[in-house]
Amino acid sequence: MATIIDGKKISAEIKEELKEKVEQLKEAGAEGTLAVIQVGDDPASGVYVRNKKKACAYIGLHSQSFELPEETTQKELLDLIERLNRDDAVNGILVQLPVPAHIDEKTVINAISPDKDVDGFHPQSVGSLTIGQPGFVSCTPAGIIELLKRSGVEMDGKHCVIVGRSNIVGKPMALLMLRENATVTVAHSHTRQLQELCRTADILIVAVGRKEFITGDYVRPGAVVIDVGIHRDEDNHLFGDVKYDEAFEKASMITPVPGGVGPMTIAMLMHNCVEAMTR
């Protein structure tokens, strides 16, 4: 049976540390402001935006909220981003994804100044991560690294299998694990003999986007299992990409859904915002 990795507790610790750092920066004359843009009224996006603003208030950052109607044009959104890029009072800019279908997501991400790209999605941020230069790191993978470190999980020399190859989680996760001297295999839903491959993992990170795709048969006894997925059923219950009860019986440590990786994403967004204050 596994030890549960408590993302809520660890994220609260990080936010307390950041709150103290923000106080010190303010005493030195620095101010921090995060601009959050939401286009449309998607309920899930609304919850995420409220949580981000709440986290800002808690650690002592200002937040500006721009809630734009669904019919906002791409040009109007890009004009707003450009105005915020030029505003020296704004340290970080975040556009809540997804955006409506008539707006090109890549164009929006590329429009944000790399100096204010606290989500870590801009190609320059990704390139910096790839070659080991300073830059903002995508919040979910950065949060997973903190979860592992603060839970005492040794990464050096361990075999990490990442199931998922997205630009937001899978690919940056692989780069961060390499930075920690892990041996990394990136797999996905098309990988042949996936079950056998997953059973070779000391650390199994699952971000495949399919509800309970990974069962207990994929988990090597004693492995650390990190579940990035989040899915709601018709009764509003939350599930991950891992069949939790089965994996729990085999793993040495496991993240729950909810309360595992999710809280860490916002904690690391706050970390990036504080980093932006110091630049």
What descriptive keywords fit this protein?
2 domains, alpha/beta, Rossmann fold
Account of the 3D structure:
The chain has 2 domains: 29-122, 3-Layer(aba) Sandwich (Rossmann fold), CATH 3.40.50; 139-262, Rossmann fold. The chain is 43% helix and 16% strand. The chain is built from 10 helices and 11 strands. It has helices spanning 7-27, 43-59, 74-86, 105-111, 123-131, 139-150, 170-179, 194-198, 244-250, 261-278; strands at residues 3-4, 33-39, 62-68, 92-95, 159-163, 183-187, 203-206, 224-227, 231-232, 238-239, 253-254. The strands form 3 sheets. It has a 6-stranded parallel sheet with strand order 1-11-8-7-5-6, sandwiched between helices. Strands 3-2-4 form a 3-stranded parallel sheet, sandwiched between helices. A hairpin with a 5-residue loop joins β9 (231-232) and β10 (238-239). α1 packs parallel to α10 (261-278), α6 packs across α7 and α6 crosses α10. The protein is globular.
Sequence-ordered SSE layout with sheet pairings:
Blueprint: E1 3-4, H1 7-27, E2 33-39, H2 43-59, E3 62-68, H3 74-86, E4 92-95, H4 105-111, H5 123-131, H6 139-150, E5 159-163, H7 170-179, E6 183-187, H8 194-198, E7 203-206, E8 224-227, E9 231-232, E10 238-239, H9 244-250, E11 253-254, H10 261-278
Parallel strand pairs: 1-11, 2-3, 2-4, 5-6, 5-7, 7-8, 8-11
Antiparallel strand pairs: 9-10
Helix pairs in contact: 1-10, 2-10, 6-7, 6-10
